[in-house]
Amino acid sequence: MDYILETQGLTKTYGKKHALENVSLHVAEGDIYGFVGRNGAGKTTLMKIVGGLSNASSGSYKLFGCEPARLGNKTLERGLLIEDPGYYPDCSGFENLYIKCLAFGIRDKNEPKRLLEMVGLQNVGKLHVKKYSFGMKQRLGIALAFVGNPGFMILDEPINGFDPEGISSMRDLIRKKNSEGTTFLISSHILDELAKIATKFGFIDNGRLIEENDAVTLKEKCKSKIELITDNPSAATTVLEQIGFSDYRVFDNGRTEIYEQLDRTGDITNALAARGIATLEIVKKYETLENYYIGLVGNGSAAGSDTVKINDDPDTVRSRNDGSKSGIAQTGRSVPGKEEQ
After folding, report:
1. pTM, rounded to two decimals
2. Which residues have C-beta within 8 Å of that of residue 297, sequence separation ≥ 6?
3. pLDDT for 59-100, tens place per residue?
4. Cβ(250)–Cβ(256) under 8 Å?
5. Domain coordinates of the chain in residue numbers?
6. Looking at the domain 3-213, which fold is it?
7. Mind listing the pLDDT tens digit for each residue in 279-320?
8. Within 10 A of 239 (CB to CB), how many other CB atoms are there?
9. How does DSSP classify residue 92?
10. Contacts of 74 (CB under 8 A, 6+ apart)
């Protein structure tokens, strides 16, 4: 696979503190890579290093297949918006863009106009930037990052300060540029928005990359579902199919996950009871990317769930993060299993 960005054991220390520790991250050509982590997790530190704004303490990275010292003019193919956008406050938005265009060898005055229109600032292009709102400055920063039509964009919290309409328009812009060939590395605290556009995710916590997943795999992990535990899982699946369920999985530890008709928990327990099958636990879970991340870093209590306790023994109700590993043994009728991480 061709990687636009590949880091190997990237580490950054400040005194005795590791801002990054042995991070190996992979952004393939064409990815919209969602970089997820809490404040101080190491997102911005990594972006500054691969953006050429800081040096790693150890480890290495390649951009466009090149070591940093060999990038040459390829540095112009890397667009950046990290923390505050750099601009001249006493110049207009148009003038700021034209100055950067000139630095890139672009003398066409229509290019700043095109960029202003692209980010929705066409009506304030003549206004001094010091009079811009926070959201307008953020839009200008994105326009500045797009000067030269870079093939790889590094965007740190790009929708900060945007209203819902602005978030939607920025989402459309990222999708459009991605369809035209631009690869993105994006961090955002609005994880559900990130989930709408990202094709791959990396989760970082305390400077360590915990997990990388493509969007399809992550969507599967974040499915809303019913979790069911009975005293006879095999017989329970027969009952489920008899009452109209087909989209489910049975795990080696006896847990069944059901991904459809989530409002029918009562029908399930009644049908099982009628056939002499004891329901030990039934849980309805509504998983989001934010819930998944919180669970991943060790605070699963924030996940949305409705738990129904069928008997009075508290030991029959398992916590969401009981540390167990489950092998998928069955999907619908029958699917060969592999261990779920």
Report:
1. 0.75
2. 38, 203, 205, 210
3. 999 999 999 999 999 999 999 999 888 899 999 999 999 999
4. yes
5. 3-213, 222-340
6. Rossmann fold (3.40.50)
7. 999 998 877 788 888 888 875 433 344 433 333 333 323 333
8. 18
9. B
10. 63, 64, 66
